[in-house]
């Protein structure tokens, strides 16, 4: 009896899914959400915060991407300042819920040693622009849906396992903290940013 071969694209997808799940333990809540197939379109983190001591941080993260307005941005543009990187997309309910807080915090730290940069993992530019207009968000976002270069750039340090995920990079461009899931407590994010700024002082 001959065995039917999977189409190449489908075989690749199966292999990727198997690889992604192979490292998950039975009590991995993110993997459980993936497996349940709820169709909600995102895997939600629990808002847990991970801080990394300066001595334990990895290498500086180098990246380059195209913003929603077509211009380019790179890690060199933020050299010497704290950078808050938020992974999001417009259809993600927790992303919408945290948007007003991110807007407020980004404005609070503008000119105070910290900048914000979004990374849109799913939308095209028009959707990102409409989202920013709706929530009056002024900081830019990299459109990462086509090549995933931004997600890849951060994967060797602390991978954004859920959307949204917010990373705080120190003034050397190293990941200092991560909030996995929605920013539930603006005061915690503000403290993480302030602490990263203070390290350089």
Automatic annotation (TrEMBL):
GO terms for cellular component: cell envelope. This is Alkyl hydroperoxide reductase. Residues 1-20 form the signal peptide. Keywords: Cytochrome c-type biogenesis, Disulfide bond, Redox-active center, Signal, Signal-anchor, Transmembrane. PANTHER family: THIOL:DISULFIDE INTERCHANGE PROTEIN DSBE. It is found in: Cell envelope. InterPro entries: Redoxin, Thioredoxin-like_sf, Thioredoxin_CS, Thioredoxin_domain, Thioredoxin_ResA/DsbE_sf. It comes from Cryobacterium arcticum. GO terms for biological process: cytochrome complex assembly.
